[in-house]
Amino acid sequence: MTDTRLASQRRADQVRAFRAELAELERSLGALFSAESRAAIEQHHAALLASLKADYDIDTSTAEQQLSLAMRIASLLGTVALCAALFFFFYRFWGRLLTPAQLALVGVAPVLGLVLTEVIARRERTRYFTGLAAAVTFAAFVLSLSVIGLIFNLPPSPVAFLVWGAFALVLATTYDLMPLYLAGTVALIVGGCGSVVALAGADWTEFLARPELTLAAGLGWAALPMVRPHRHPAFAPVDHVLGAALALLSAALLGLAGRSSLLPLPAALVEGIYDLLGLALAAGGIWLGIRRRWGALRITCTVMLIAMVFIKAFDWWWTWMPRYLFFLVLGALAVAVLWLLRRTRSRRIA
Amino acid sequence: MNRGFWYALGIVALATAAGIASGIRNQSGTGGLWLEVGRELQLLTGDPENTERALVWVIPRPAGNRVTIDGRRPADLGLTPDSGEQSLARPRFVVLTLLEGPVASASRLAITDAGPELAGLAERYPDRGRYLIVQGTIARWRPGGREGTSFYVWLVPVQLHLPTELPLGRALLVRSGRRGVPFIADSRP
Predict the structure, then answer these.
(1) Virtual CA dihedral for B129, B131, B136, B138, nearest 10 degrees?
(2) Where are the alpha helices (DSSP H) in chain A?
(3) Given A348, B9, B59, B150, which is the most exposed site by the fewest CB atoms within 10 A?
């Protein structure tokens, strides 16, 4: 959804909430407005909703919202299915084509997809079909470079991920498509981490075994919206969720397997350092999310903090505690956190 | 057409052209090893969902992925110390040698040397009809913290594409290109 469309949808929701609350109030207190004022308000809202619907095709009723949700789900399923169909179709038949035909086919497919995406985007205000066409175009481009690599036996390269990432981000920002922004971000992180490892002289896939790089990449990506305001504010939550989840997951992995660290320290010490760092980062993320009202960051860090505590508890106690005691301790921990939060809430209310 | 469309089109055009140019540029050179299908190369078959004809190397490795390279220590291959049992894998060039006179049906291919420079290895192994120098990755092995005498070696890529233009003969000519990327250049019935 574009930023303008999001704002329009919010305005329409506000109008619907106002109407509902007014009806409740009038049921309890009787008529609050004169018939003329009420008619003027009704007329203004009707005109506003009609204009928003005409310009941005927003949902003006609960039924429409439910239909939109169903359309989003259908669009997502359709995207996955069509991308899979494209891959399987090509692999099923490409062995029967001569090499120039294979290359021509994979070279032309993303270009055709791009043209189709542009044509659909010009005719559609909502982005269901545009998103579908753009995702298939992205899949065609991924297929294209992969097949060129297979035909010439080229070794896999992180540069391909950087190129795919750049392509997805261009599509995402041009046509306001969040799923492609997510795909592009993941590809750029993979390509970036792989390139750093390759420049250091190691095989680029080794970044998967060295979580410090993904930790740094996740932190950097989550911090991006702080350094520079996002040109597409609707995409900022993706940066927060992906960056924070990647950084905290990496810290949790290092806390479990210190041997995979790049630090020249004993494994046990490394694990302790990353346990503390992970908890501090998660707590810091929650604080920042509350302070700046970044809901996605707050929720991601909370979920990851809970996951990290449970993982550590499992790592420390599972083998030597009886099962009932392990779960009892976890339950007691949860009750303690609940009690602490309740006290904080009561203080804030007071 | 908006600006984003043209940027996207530019990325597609440049990346596709660069990929094809890189592949074509690599596929030059002379010599190569005639390898027998079913002996040194194994055809990947049986997947009706993928009609590509691809082959994998058959290189005997008694110790799993590890191979011993006579007279080579980790430092010779530029493998720096690492605290783990298996060090970081590093891209290197691997020398494949076509051995003479082993058992009739067994693969004659062996990994006999490796190094960080393609040119240095090409100078040391000039016989293009016996040696093939290809890209690979190597990691050193330190069992229990002690220095091992063998290395983990993987050839990159793991499989070779057989172009549709070439028939699948009994023997295939495998060449190594300018960048040490192997490719199938000819087929013999």
Answers:
(1) 170
(2) 3-29, 35-56, 62-93, 99-123, 128-151, 158-175, 178-199, 211-227, 236-256, 267-292, 295-317, 323-349
(3) A348
| Phi and psi at residue B183, to the nearest 5° | -155, 155
Q: Which residue has the tokens 């592949």?
A: B23
The CA-atom distances, in angstroms, between B59 and each of A223, A294, B173 are 48, 55, 16
Q: Are B157 and A155 a contacting pair at CB < 8 A?
A: yes
Q: How far is residue A189's CA from residue A243's CA, in Å, rounded to a whole number?
A: 10
Confidence of residue B131 (pLDDT cuts 50, 70, 90): very high
Question: Is the previous residue joined to B157 through a cis bond, with omega within 30 degrees of 0?
Answer: yes
**Residues 4..43 of B with a Cβ closer than 8 Å to A: which?**
4-5, 7-9, 11-13, 15-16, 19-20, 22-24, 26-27
User: Which tokens sit at B73?
Assistant: 């220590």
Q: ipTM of the assembly?
A: 0.90
Q: Which of A120, A206, A171 is nearest to B87 (CA)?
A: A206
pLDDT at A89 over 80: yes
- Which pLDDT tens digit goes with each residue over A182-207? 999 999 999 999 999 999 888 999 88
Q: Is B168 on the interface with A (CB under 8 A)?
A: no
Q: Which residues of B touch A254 (CB under 8 A)?
A: none
**In contact, B156 and B91? CB cutoff 8 Å:** yes
Collapse the DSSP code of B95 into the 3-class scheme (helix H, G, I; strand E, B; otherwise coil) and give the result: strand
β-sheet with B150-155: strand ranges across: B66-68, B150-155, B131-140, B90-98, B109-115
Q: Report the gap between the CA of A282 and the closest CA in chain B (Å).
A: 29
Q: Edge to edge, what strands does the sheet with B54-57 contain?
A: B41-44, B54-57, B159-161
Predicted model pTM: 0.85
